[in-house]
Amino acid sequence: MQLLLLILIPAIGFGGWPVAARLAGTTAAWTNAILMSVTTILVLGYYGKALIAEPITGNQAFAMSLVALMNFAGLVAFAIVIQKYPQYVVIAQALMPVASFVGTWKLIGVPVSTGQVVCLMVASLGIAGMGYFTPPQPTP
User: Fold this and answer.
1) For residue range 110-121, what is the model confidence (pLDDT) as tens digits?
2) Percent of residues in the chain assigned helix, strand, coil, to nearest 5
3) Dihedral sign of CA atoms 24, 94, 140, 36 in order
4) 30 contacts 21 by C-beta, under 8 angstroms
5) How does pLDDT run across 78-122, given as a tens digit for each residue?
6) Are 21 and 79 spatial neighbours (Cβ–Cβ below 8 Å)?
7) d(CA 101, CA 113)
8) With left for phi above 0 and alpha for psi between -120 and 50, is residue 36 left, alpha or beta?
9) Which of 19, 64, 128, 129 has its CB surrounded by the most CB atoms within 10 Å?
10) Highest mean pLDDT among 16-20, 36-40, 84-88
11) d(CA 67, CA 85)
12) Within 10 A of 82 (CB to CB), how many other CB atoms are there?
């Protein structure tokens, strides 16, 4: 049961926040500011003791700053797509697992099986297909 929750919470959180943000009707700027501010506060509260107990090196901090920059760029771009081009949200969502898959394969060197490639293609096509068959109307 605990494993199921650990799987469902990110799926609902990452898959649901764009929908909730769109329903809220906030601009991309407000969506990102609130999303990142609240997330920062919650992460510091949850991991505060571990951050003090487990210091990192300067190189690690620099590398993670680049990771944070990638996340920031993704959040801002995704919020803009949600606001101005909602008909393309599913394409961005379909490409997310592809980017993760290719990065894991090329940068980390995780071996790839034919089954993984087939499942990735089916999943990405399924996500993109949702938008193709039921495209939302662009907002004015």
Assistant:
1) 888 898 889 888
2) 85, 0, 15
3) positive
4) no
5) 888 888 888 788 888 888 888 888 888 888 888 888 988 898 888
6) yes
7) 12
8) alpha
9) 128
10) 36-40
11) 26
12) 21
Distances 56 to 20, 44, 47, 80, 88 between C-alpha atoms, Å: 35, 16, 14, 34, 39
Phi, psi of 139 (to 5 degrees): -85, 145
Could you tell me which of 136, 131, 129, 133 has the C-alpha nearest to residue 23? 136
CA distance 123 to 129: 10
Scan for tokens 């494993």, then name that residue. 3
**Structure letter (DSSP) for residue 24:** H
pTM for the model: 0.68
